[in-house]
Prior knowledge:
Layout: H1 25-39, E1 46-48, E2 58-61, E3 76-83, E4 94-100, E5 103-112, E6 115-121, E7 127-133, H2 134-147, E8 162-164
Antiparallel strand pairs: 1-2, 2-3, 3-6, 4-5, 5-8, 6-7
Amino acid sequence: xxxPVRLLPDPVLSLACRPVERIDDEALALAADLVDTMRATSHxxxxxxxxxxxxxxxxxxxxxxxxxxxxxxxxxxxxxPVVDRSSVESxxxxxxxxxxxxxxxxxxxxxxxxxxxVRGIAPTGAxxxxxxxxxxxxAVQHELDHLDGLLFLDRVVAGERVFRRRTYR
Length: 169
């Protein structure tokens, strides 16, 4: 089911999310809703649970076909994702433009690690370990921030690096 995307200043967007306790029918319904909501917007490459009003650690991404993608794992849905910190310790951050469905009128320049390893649980209950880089790494970090109650605006490199979004419609 496509769910309405919560917009800033909705308070759910600033909350740190709770872990998903078990992969049950409720978690699987959340997974389906995340994918449906992401697919409903042509320029979306990811959605996190708080963006649809659910304060649980879950997100989906799919960077398939994006011109800035190098790694591409297709449609990925992760519960309780975490970054393997050793995978980001030596990689310097790179600045890139980001937008967000929860902040539809703005974009901004954000520094992110260019590559990382993320672990989580798939809807099947299996542990997933993904090595991501370039745009897919940026998308993963953006969605992880949502799970910690952060928006890209919290990470913009400088106030003058926030811009009005170009119209996609």
